C-alpha cells in the first residue's frame, strides 16, 4: 500500500467517523482512535494526536450549523467548558506517562459504561423542575421541534460540572474529545434533551481538544501527514451528519450511539489486555 492509498483509506474512515460524531455528539474521535490503532496499527499516542486535531475540525464544522439553527445552548456550553479545559490538561499529564495498553483498556471501559447509561430511560428537561442554581445561571432554553420551539429546564448543575471535569480528563488521556461523557453528563445528570446535549457537546469539544492538542504537539505526537487526511475526512463527515441530525429520531440516535461504542469498547479492551496496542 502506497502513501496515497493509505491516506485515502484513512480519509474515508475518518469521514464515517465524523458523520457518526456529528449525529451522536461523540466528536468523531471515539471512532478515529480505534480505527487508527486497530486497523492501521498506528501508535496510540499518534492516533490520539491526530484525533484531537480532527475533534477541533468536527466542532468547527458541525457546531456552526447547530448554533445557527438554535439547537446548541451556548450559555451551558461556555459554563461547562471551564471544567473540561482544566480536566483536559490534567488528562494529558497522565497520558504521557501511562502505557498504551492501559490507555486502551481505560478507553474501552469508558465506552461500555457510556453505552449502558445511554440505553437507560430518563426524563428530559421538559418534565423536570429547574434547580435554583440553574435558574440563577439562566441555563434553561428552547430548541426547534416538529411543532415549533420546545422549552426545557436544567437541573443537577454540580453533578454535571463534576462530570465535565472527568470528560475533560478523558479527552486529554484518550483523545476522544470526551463527547460521550459530555453528552451523558448533560443528558443524564442535567436532564437536557438529547438533541440539545449532542449539539452542545459538539460546540464544546473543540475547546477541550485544543487544550489537549497543544500539549501533544509540544511532545511531538501530532504528525501532519497523518492528521491532515483525518481532519479533512472528519470535517466533511461532520457537516453531512449535521444535516441528517435535524431530521433524525432521538430513539434511533440512542441505539446508534450505544451500538457503535459497545463494539469499539470490547475491541479496545481485548487489544489492550492482550498487548496488541
* CA-atom Rg in angstroms: 17 Å
Strand content: under 5%
End-to-end Cα distance: 21 Å
Secondary structural class: mainly alpha
**Percent range of helical residues:** over 70%
Q: What would the principal axes of the Cα set say about the shape?
A: globular
Described by strand count, sense and barrel closure, the largest sheet is: 2 strands, antiparallel
Number of helices: 11
The overall strand count is: 2
Secondary-structure element series: HHHHHHEEHHHHH
**Averaged pLDDT:** 80
Detail the poorly predicted runs: none
Arrangement of strands in the largest sheet: 1-2
Name the quaternary structure: single chain
Properties at a glance:
mainly alpha; 277 residues
Structural description of this entry:
This protein is mainly alpha-helical and 277 residues long. The chain contains eleven helices and two strands. The protein has helices spanning 3-24, 29-39, 44-69, 74-95, 100-119, 132-137, 157-174, 179-189, 194-218, 224-245, 250-273, and strands spanning 141-145, 148-152. A two-stranded antiparallel ribbon has the order 1-2. A hairpin with a 2-residue loop joins strand 1 and strand 2. The protein is globular.
Can you describe this structure in just a few lines?
With 277 residues, this protein is mainly alpha-helical. Helices cover 75% and strands 4% of the residues.
